Amino acid sequence: MLKIQDHRIRVAASRREEMQNTLIFSVLALSYEKSIHEIDVDDVIQHAQVSRGSFYKYFPSVQASVLALASQLTNELTTEIEAITDQISDTATRLVATSKLTMRYLVKVPLIGNFLIQLPWPSQNPDTNVFKHISADVELGIKEGVFTKMPASIGCNLLVGSLIGGVHSMLSKPASTGYENKVLYQVLMGLGLDSKTADDLLKIPMPSLPKLPATGVLGKIAGMDD
Known about the structure:
- It contains 11 helices and no strands.
- By secondary structure, the protein is mostly helical.
- It has a domain at 67-223: Orthogonal Bundle (Tetracycline Repressor, domain 2), CATH 1.10.357.
- Helix 9 (179-190) packs antiparallel against helix 10.
- It is elongated.
């Protein structure tokens, strides 16, 4: 009897997770068509093809579903990128690798990039800050003396603001050759590296982006191409 009950609990939990993913994926899809501030409940339930009651069973408002989407995307993207960059011990090299992979992911999957660049920055909520590990490396680099001594918030805003602007530009029109390096070169110079060191860091070969996983919100995006 206990095994049957446990199975039912697991099935119910799986269904709840799937419904939540369906709702927040609808928010993601809608954010590609309009501003996240313009999406209303009717838009979401129509896209998800669920009842109004089903939506409110999971979220008290559209804003809450936007925050849930931001948190889940942050966790899923961070997991994918960290699997590659955590193997890099040098702070500056890891920062460049993480920044490049993040930019490439957001541009390769415009559905994600368009949503994330609409989120407010600076973010006071680490759960919805897809750039939190980039910011952590900026802070670490300042402490280590790799970057010029400055308030960590200034260094983080310099880098993240540049990344957001770079992604926005690349989503708006085809980027020129080496555009991401041009963005990061200016950032590295602003953080206090000399020209040669910045150039050398940007010339380090980058690993390929991993495929989108089969689960979560990223899994739903991957499923669109099946």
